[in-house]
Task: structure prediction
Amino acid sequence: MTKQEFLAIATEAAKRVSTRSGLPAGITVAQAALESGWGNSKLSREAHNYFGIKAHGKHAWVEMPTTECGASGAHATKAKFARYASMEQCFECRDRLIASGALYAEARASAGDPEKFVRAVAKRWATDPQYAEKLLAVYRANGLDKLDVDPRG
Result:
């Protein structure tokens, strides 16, 4: 999948999901792009999982290698990741996790400010200490901030 193909498909899915969740669509697209290598990761191709969401509840899952960052640095491991039927289903799950998880209360409170939202999500979503900056760089470089402008002013 090319970057432009990914942006077109992900933008439409994120807009639909964001209408229901109230979370910033541009951030959803940027996060999916960053996490999935523009939809080209094995996890996104084989499991429609664009965020590295771990298996939870009664989700179908797939086990894949991953790298986690911790106090002792980065290390390779295997993990069970959620498997989805579509990109939109994955985006819905991601938004549900943020909308209902106690860990994401700060993010929910910042949903109207995409930069604050990213920084709050990053505290809980990823182990990479540079995650927020990487995500914001993708967001800005690809004009995804235009998706999160309130047309009502």
In short: The chain has one domain: 3-52+85-148. The radius of gyration is 15 Å. The first helix runs from residue 3 to 21.
